[in-house]
Amino acid sequence: MPDMTKSDTAATTATDAVATADAAVQPVKAEKVRSLWGDAWADLRRNKIFITSAVMILLLMTITFFPGWFTSANPTYGDLAKHYIQKPQLGKVFSPEWLGYDAQGRSVYARLIYGARASIAVGFGTTIVVTVVGGLVGMIAGYFGGLVDSILSRLVDVFFGIPFLLGTMVVLNSFPERTTWVVIGALGFFGWTQLARVMRGAVITTKQSDYVQAAKALGASTPRILFRHILPNTLAPVIVVATISLGVYIGSEATLSFLGLGLNGVSWGNDISDGGNSIRVAQWIMLYPSIMLTITVLAFIMLGEAVRNALDPKTR
Length: 316
Hints:
The chain is mainly α. It has 13 helices and no strands.
């Protein structure tokens, strides 16, 4: 009887050993490796700052493209019977008199809604111009180096030496009619230098990578190397700078309009400037456009900061 017990115990031990060995040789399921953008998106979805700023920007974009959803009032129609002495009717939400009227009897709320279109259009348009021009200049300078890099770098230094707002004011002052495209062109003409430097540094680092050297060895053309191998791997810092700069350009447009050199039309900057003349008796004319401008600029800067932290490997 004891012999049978020892035999059973030995058999059980052998069976366990075989099971353990089988488990050891089982292939381990490899974890799915995420790309830089996949990791960044996973971080952004958990970032409350990103979610808050994204919701704010989505609301601003909705106001920009569909202002009629928010008000039926005409932002340029003035009724002197509704002078700014008539205070805001805060209980009448979304109505023309909700935020009061300005000195010409125009609805402050309607101008607030339609002013978003001008500011957002200038911000996005300038960012696109700056990204394209600065990206191309920086990519060419960083990739070719040598004399090309020296010439383009000195050109960037020349534009860097011109104060951004002062140079823009000089250019806009020469145009009798300052449309959206004119303001975008003036801001983009002096605003591309920072992004060019960022792109140049990223290209200098990327072009030394093994896959770029392999593409050169295989005889790939220069445009293919630039746009197929280098550009996709240098977009991260460019996107960060462009997102943050977008808010800066919106603020710059408002500053120019406040100084009388911005858009000829409905604009937050123009309303802030007009409100300054009657700030003693009707503070709301200047207050509400200032609040909207601050929220808009802050939303884009917050979004850019969140994207930068998500794409920065040092923060992981």
